[in-house]
């Protein structure tokens, strides 16, 4: 299960997806702290099988967690080298350029 939010802006669709068990936690790494709030990430809860469709159709993806980041890499939407880790948790942002 994932926590998910969809944001539409000027013709673009941004999805933010987080492994559900991470919602409400804070990731710390030196001077960087990211709070994975329910208000931001959990507009709705989705099943893992829905994620590939969302990942393929969005313009921008903001992903946090091992399972969702692995799905994006397996779909060939990103490369492992693009993944950043904060407190050992994978964090990936994808921006799709469309001409």
Tell me what the CATH architecture is: 2-Layer Sandwich
Number of strands: 8
Class of secondary structure makeup: alpha+beta
**What is the CATH topology classification name?**
uncharacterized conserved protein from methanopyrus kandleri fold like
Radius of gyration: 13 Å
User: What percent of residues are in strands?
Assistant: 35-45%
Query: Stretches where pLDDT falls below 50 for ≥5 residues?
Result: none
Mean pLDDT across all amino acids: 91
Tell me about the largest β-sheet: 6 strands, mixed
Instruction: Report the principal-axis shape.
Output: globular
Number of helices: 3
CATH superfamily: uncharacterized conserved protein from methanopyrus kandleri domain like
Q: Tell me the series of helices and strands, N- to C-terminal.
A: EEEEHEHEHEE
Q: Describe it for me?
A:
It contains three helices and eight strands. The chain has a single domain, classed as uncharacterized conserved protein from methanopyrus kandleri domain like (uncharacterized conserved protein from methanopyrus kandleri fold like). A hairpin with a 2-residue loop joins strand 7 and strand 8 (89-95). The model has no long low-confidence stretch (mean pLDDT 91). It has 99 residues and is α+β, with helices and mostly antiparallel strands. It has a six-stranded mixed beta sheet. The N and C termini lie far apart (33 Å). 23% of the residues are buried.
Could you give the topology of this structure?
Elements lengths: L1 E8 L2 E8 L6 E4 L2 E4 L2 H4 L2 E3 L4 H7 L2 E5 L1 H9 L9 E3 L2 E7 L4
Parallel strand pairs: 2-6
Antiparallel strand pairs: 1-2, 1-5, 3-4, 6-8, 7-8
């Amino acid at each position: 299960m994932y926590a998910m939010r969809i944001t539409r802006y000027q013709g673009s669709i941004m999805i933010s997806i987080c492994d559900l068990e991470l919602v409400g936690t804070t990731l710390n790494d030196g001077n960087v702290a990211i709070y994975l709030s329910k208000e931001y990430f959990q507009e709705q809860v989705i099943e893992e099988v829905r994620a590939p469709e969302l990942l393929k159709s969005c313009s921008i993806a903001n992903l946090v967690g091992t399972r969702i980041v692995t799905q994006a890499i397996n779909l060939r939407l990103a490369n492992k080298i693009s993944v950043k880790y904060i407190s050992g948790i994978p964090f990936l942002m994808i921006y799709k350029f469309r001409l």
